[in-house]
Design a protein that fits this description.
Length: 277
């Protein structure tokens, strides 16, 4: 018996699922994730572009250290500036562009710094993060993941061709959208015409119903007039019969029952028109 109870307890323990909180992983990304930029030679040096380092789902960030990895033959690091919202939240800090101890800790998601790079020559490279440390208010390391930025530096000719192809694709897409909208408009126009035809038919039927209703009203009014006239005639005949019966009684002549006389007069009234047909 004891072994059965123990087995039952073990089974129940295995069936019970203890909910565990899903840990959110802090992430550092370089935004945007892809850059295509033209190589332009200028009098004061080559052209510049900017990326931002964005932190996601961090809690109590107090200090960070990071560095970039990239092909230094294609691009080079120039400088960095605070993201305004991040600066306001943390009230700044002490250190350099790549190493910073914040005045206030940071919790949440947002861009931290904007970094400027100079283009050296056409080519492809990836800007990734290395030697990264994220430290919280207790001095503990914060675990994290990183995502890089793919950079493609094109000659003006290649960049122009890429832009032209992109514009042509957009133009084709717009043309397709226009064709689809035109087709939808045609379908809507057909449906509108069909509904208009149905409305016209219903309007005609409604007009016919109105005419029939008017005729019915006229017929009802005529019938009511005829009933009123017949009622008046019956009343007059009844009065005449009453007068005649009274006169016959005064002369000592027995009269017919008033009901029989009325029925007889009505029979003559209705049979006479039938006889004339």
């Amino acid at each position: 018996m004891k072994s059965k109870i123990t087995l039952t307890i073990i089974i129940l323990i295995n069936l019970i699922t203890i909910p565990t909180a899903t840990a959110t992983t802090t992430k550092l990304t370089i935004e945007p994730p892809t850059i295509t930029y033209p190589y332009i030679e200028l009098e004061d040096g080559a052209s510049l572009f900017e990326v931002a380092v964005k932190i996601h789902d961090v809690t109590n960030l107090k200090e960070y250290h990071l560095d970039f990895a990239y092909d230094s033959n294609i691009i080079e690091f120039v400088s960095g500036t605070w993201d305004q919202s991040f600066y306001v939240t943390t009230r700044g800090g002490t250190g350099g562009w790549l190493d910073m101890r914040l005045a206030d800790y940071y919790t949440g998601t947002g861009e931290m710094y904007h970094y400027t790079f100079r283009v050296l020559k056409p080519g492809n490279t990836t800007i990734s993060l290395k030697n990264v440390e994220l430290i919280d208010t207790e001095g503990a390391q914060i675990s994290f993941e990183t995502e890089p930025c793919d950079v493609s530096i094109l000659s003006l000719e290649d960049y122009s061709d890429k832009i032209n192809k992109s514009l042509l694709n957009e133009l084709e897409n717009l043309h397709q959208d226009y064709t689809d909208l035109e087709s939808e408009l045609s379908t809507l126009q057909t449906e509108y015409n069909e509904l208009s035809q149905e409305l016209s038919t219903l309007s005609s039927e409604n007009t016919l119903l109105d005419e029939l209703n008017e005729e019915l009203q006229d017929s009802v009014e005529d019938l009511q007039t005829q009933i009123t006239t017949l009622t008046d005639e019956i009343t007059n005949i009844s009065n005449e019969v009453s007068d005649l019966q009274e006169e016959l009684q005064n002369q000592g002549i027995p009269g017919f029952p008033i009901t029989a006389i009325i029925i007889g007069l009505l029979a003559l009234f209705y049979l006479k028109p039938l006889k004339n047909r």
